[in-house]
Design goal:
There is one protein chain. This protein is of the alpha+beta class. It contains three helices and five strands; from the N terminus they run H-H-E-E-E-E-E-H. It has one domain. 42% of the residues lie in helices and 19% in strands. A five-stranded antiparallel sheet has the order 1-2-3-4-5.
């Protein structure tokens, strides 16, 4: 069984510029595909192959989503830019939670509660989460 990567607060914050780039690629791809789909007659679907531009947009979308997954980052909502980073706080698995527009990762929630259960990271929590990945591979 493969062990899930965990992130310190510092590691999550360091990845935010890359996360924002990937979010933008995903949004651009989705926007193009939505426009292409909207131009079809009612009831019609984009062909499986589509135009070369549609195929490129779909590949860009899949690639950007896969790059996030390969990093161990969880994309929760592309429209709001909601991202979770697995972490450990006080010995318990948590998700460091960031939403586009926030300057840094400053929230977390347990695995079950989701966005509505977000709690601000205190100084002690940030210190503990900073050390969470020291033993992860």
């Amino acid at each position: 069984m493969t062990r899930q990567r965990t992130f310190s607060v510092d590691e999550a914050n360091a990845l935010l510029p890359r996360v924002q780039e990937l979010l933008e690629l995903i949004r651009e791809s989705l926007s193009f595909l939505r426009k292409a789909s909207a131009s079809l007659p009612p009831g019609a679907r984009l062909p499986d192959v589509g135009s070369p531009l549609q195929a490129a947009a779909l590949e860009q979308l899949r690639s950007a989503e896969q790059r996030l997954a390969d990093l161990g980052i969880q994309l929760k909502d592309v429209e709001t830019g909601l991202i979770d980073f697995p972490s450990v706080l006080e010995g318990q698995p948590v998700l460091l939670c960031w939403q586009e527009g926030e300057g840094r990762v400053a929230w977390y929630h347990d695995l079950a509660s989701g966005f509505s259960g977000r709690v601000p990271l205190g100084a002690q929590a940030e210190d503990q989460a900073t050390e969470s990945d020291e033993n992860s591979a």
